[in-house]
Amino acid sequence: MTGIATAVDIALNSLVLGGVFLIVAIGLNIIYGLSRVMNLAHGSLFAIGAYTGYTLVASGLNFFVALLITPIIAGFVGLILERMIIAPMRKRSMIYTLILTYGLMFFLDGMIKQTWGNEPRFIELPIFMGETLSILGTHYPVFRLVTLAITAVVMIALMLFLNKTRLGIILRAASTIPEMVSCLGFNMNYVHIGAFVLGSALAGVAGIIAGPLTTIDPLMGHEMLISSFVVIVIGGLGSLRGAVYAAILIGVVQTLAEFFITDLAMVIVYMMMAVILAFRPLGLLGEGKFE
Amino acid sequence: MEAFLCTDDLCRQFGGVTATDCVCIDIEESGLRSIIGPNGAGKTTFINIITGRIPASSGKVFFQGSDITNKPTHELVRMGICRTFQITSIFQNLTVFENVRIARQAHKGGSLKIFSTKRSLKNVSVDTWDILERLGLQDQAHQEAKNLAYGDQRVLEVAIAMAGSPQILFLDEPTAGMSPGETNHISRLIRGLAEEISIVLVEHDMDLVMSISDRITVLHYGSIIAEGLPEEIKTHQMVREAYLGKDA
Amino acid sequence: MMSDITSIPGDRPSAAPIKIFGFAAIFLALAILPFVWDNRFYISLITQIMIYGLLAMSLDVLLGYTGLLSFMHNAYLGIGAYMVGLFLIHVSPTSLWLACLVGVIFTGAVALPVGWVQVRTGGLAFALLTLAFGMMFHTIVWKWYSVTGGDDGLMGVPSPDIQLFRWTVGNTGDPTHIYLLTLVVVAICFVLTRRIIRSPFGAVLEAIRENEERAAFVGINVRRYKLYGWMLACILAGIAGALFILYKGYIGPTTMSAFAGAGVLMMVLLGGMGSLWGPLIGAGIFIYIQDYITTMTEHWEIYLGLVVILLVLFMPTGFVGMGSYLKRMRRN
Description:
The complex is a heterotrimer.
Chain A: H1 3-35, H2 42-58, H3 63-86, H4 94-116, E1 132-135, E2 138-141, H5 142-164, H6 166-176, H7 178-183, H8 188-210, H9 220-235, H10 240-261, H11 265-279
Antiparallel strand pairs in A: 1-2
Chain B: E1 5-14, E2 17-27, E3 31-36, H1 43-50, E4 58-63, E5 66-67, H2 73-79, E6 81-83, H3 96-108, H4 122-134, H5 150-163, E7 168-172, H6 180-194, E8 198-202, H7 206-212, E9 215-220, E10 223-228, H8 230-234, H9 237-244
Parallel strand pairs in B: 3-8, 3-9, 6-7, 7-8
Antiparallel strand pairs in B: 1-2, 1-4, 4-5, 9-10
Chain C: H1 2-6, H2 17-36, H3 40-66, H4 74-91, H5 96-119, H6 123-143, H7 145-148, E1 161-164, E2 167-171, H8 175-197, H9 200-210, H10 212-216, H11 222-248, H12 258-271, H13 277-294, H14 300-314, H15 318-331
Antiparallel strand pairs in C: 1-2
């Protein structure tokens, strides 16, 4: 392969990886921004998305149909969790919510193992997605390009929703001044539920599009949880724009690190995070209004 | 003579909103300065910047001749700049005594004596009792702070601030939510303190402000619109407009 | 109450004689135990409980006294254990104390820069970062095969003799000897930590837990004291790590996994945070149950998660809290 081809390969891989990080991290960030809950079970919802996608496709459904159904199922799981476990904790201190969702993470991971077993699974793709496309000398897998396209569609839809629709604007307002929004007669309970369902659905989408990129195994959620932390901590807690920059940055760094040193790639990412935080403790775009 | 505490074109923006707009103020070494203004005038923001709670966007703060702009809070406290908060901020699960003692200990030193008992810091305990007695909290000394009546919690916060032996003390609406009796008690206390140190009082209760202040500064939309003795402020045209609108 | 106002103003009475007596009685009973009860399995189990008890206690210094959450405190036990093991394997198989010293200092040296970054970021990000850094350490020991033995773990760690001055008093390979060594070290750590927690320094940590902003506004350098608290907790964890490798003679990456970290957190929750001895009890309950359940089901994870959820929802003060709750009930 030529140098240019390798560079194109790495650049595209970075974007694909960064895109998946971004969708998961934005979901986490939306939940945190709107209901001040840092959901450590978010990675497990991502894994549930991947496994659900696998089951749907394996049962004969078209990949794209599964892509529409999966977020609905993940969102529904999020709804149940919010009502049963998170809502009663709302008034308690941050430490308790963190420990609670940490317990939830292990519970869900255990359930995933119980349901789907320990062995890795693969999502069977439609035939055209298994081919490669020639771009500037590299033969790039079509499904990765499709993943990229889906990421873009999800992000654009999310931005349109948050900026153009009435509901989205209310949600954004609620993340800055919850008191005012509840004064205006909106039930903050619904805002919390909405945030959780939306965030979980995003994790679900990320799960099904990440499925074909990697193998699906019960530990995939852990790694993704940590990566999305890294994204939102570097980007700045609660900052959506910061998350976009951080996700792309980490996608690039991790892809490069994996290309050159393989095994310890994540360590490089953590080191970079430590350096960034040493100089900007609140992240790149953090404003310090979050705890 | 150099000023005791002064600000030079101090500004703070939140997004596009200017909460503190080029404020220059001079505060004396003792006496009671009140800062008043309609809701949203930027009073709390202003003292938040001076006491290091939020950074200034531009401008400088000087204390006894040295530049203290955007210094870390704990250093400002060590220099003698203490404050209370609009929303009561105390150590809820510690006793009243422990609340004041930790503040006194932070001021006096000895926090790194990891193998000593707390009572080994004798002078800290003695000072703590002096402060509690002066503020009339000695009978509640062993109650947990969260079990105190609201008014007593406000007094406790003043006690915590005083434990730092302040040279200048910022009080952010100390009488908010208090009964007339409690207000009376705390206003006498504040007046007494003002004979020794410099007090900056942010307050909404006009009767209180007019009766105990030595000087008053009026903020409106983040800038100073008037400054003077209480009688001057009462009759000041711009102040009346700020509070009552143009036609008054 | 009036009595201590007149004597030394305003201090809660320090350790009552009955507490010191109780502590001494428990210590002696545990010291005699292996000589009267010759059950290798339980002696070994109690050793493990004491080691994890020390780890849980060190986490309590952070969680219960400083108000900081560390998800993967086991990472620092692991770092200490690996270092002591590597020292014994590669440098000197007989220098017990030197190995422990090197292990604990190394743990501190790793914890310092990590803590320095963590305390700069605020409460929530602090917790998230403990998880991220913990995972990083886990990944390193897991993948760095040439040094740590990777997946297989560190094997063949020699058992040095326990020497006091010139006398050899035992060997760490002997279950009774390592039991007694662990008992003595854990007891010393417990007494010292309790002393530190009740010192003026401990008062500063409590103030930070109660109200960080107010603490800063009485002149406390919050970041610096958080870092001190973090270092104290990590060094105690490093000591637990040294005991761990001497006791097991082996350590693998699973000891440093997120899952094991949740276990430590659960010990503190079970016992009740903010009491130091609560987490020791919590460790006992946890390890006993774990031993019992893992033989019955492979889905231990589900139960761990479920118990953590139930604990936080219904019994946030843990075992200790239940004790004081009952006391209050009786008084009323």
